[in-house]
Write a structure and sequence with these properties.
Elements: E1 11-13, E2 17-19, E3 28-31, E4 37-40, E5 42-45, E6 48-51, E7 54-57, E8 61-65, E9 73-74, E10 77-80, E11 85-94, E12 97-102, E13 106-111, E14 115-119, E15 123-124, E16 135-138, E17 143-145, E18 147-151, E19 155-159, E20 164-168, E21 172-176, E22 187-192, E23 197-206, E24 209-214, E25 217-221, E26 226-232, E27 236-238, E28 244-247, E29 251-253, E30 263-264, E31 267-268, E32 272-276, E33 280-284, E34 291-300, E35 302-309, E36 312-316, E37 320-321, E38 327-332, E39 338-345, E40 352-361
Length: 363
Amino acid sequence: MPLPAHLPTLIACVGWLLVPALAGAVDAIVFNRDGAAAVGQPVLKDGNLLVGQTSVPCERVIGIGGVATKPRWLNPGVTLTNGDILRGGQITLQQGNLQFTSDVLGPCTIPTSAVAVIMCKARPAEWRAPAGFVGVILANDDTKAGQVEYINDQKIGINDGRRVAALPRERIAAIVLREQLRPTENHQVLHLANGDRINGQLKTLGAQGFELVSDRGTVRGSAEEWSSLWSEGPNQTPWTSVTTETQVPGVGFDYLPDGSPLTIGTRRVGHGLGMRGAGSSTASTNGSWKTLVGEIAVIEGSAKIQVLADNKPAWTSSLMHASPRGQLFIAPIAGAKSVRITVIPTDAAAPLVVIGWPTLVKN
């Protein structure tokens, strides 16, 4: 069922709930699995989103689009193993701890075991460290594998197993210490306007702003300072956080292929895929997920969108044309070892498609 075009922002809750963001006096529209709809005012209370007589735990929310625009480039900072992305500077690493001044949280001391990547230079916001790589990435994109021994104001020491090489900091774009960990507890993920991504428990969200309790303290801000929010945990995870097997050219992760932010109509989309032409994205799912849910929209041209589970069609959209409206989809993928999202163009022009908030769900 297409969403009404006038809705400015979106919350999508696993299974049946679609509501606009809480930044104004707007009604929510609730869909159940049979397509029946209810309308009400969204209220965040005691960890639940209330819409009329419907109450949904925050842990089941798959996407809320906010007011702020997500930045195209991220300034230097750190990515933690829990998925936090913190912008800032004055980064040093000595005696098992990383000293860091966060733009949002201020001075931080973080055990190096909790740090995944240190960004030394600005990078595109959609940049990801190479899978399985540990070492440094140079400013010219060359790599040098090894363990980081130290970081000071001038040098970075890299142990390649034979010796410790001292590399000038100005030559380094990123330092990869380890891979991120899959979440083991339910939490909300908040993207801020400066590019920070902070995990925690949401306490308030509305026209008055937000409050999120994170591992490193309570973060508060105005409605204009956050870009998007969703929930992750052992029972649901965004598609873009799953290891991707294959991906054809013309696919952007969390951005359009040209680097523009993902939007559906005027609504922000915090995570998802932007596909130009006959794009596709395939991920290993190990048979552990029950459904793939999300929202789809054709921005330019015409196309059908299909989800394949172990190379067999699990869900196919109707023919969709360019429109500011999105359509919720729920694709059954129980037992599938591999899942692919693909765009099927229906005319000569290469369509532009947004797969918004695609989320793997166990129950």
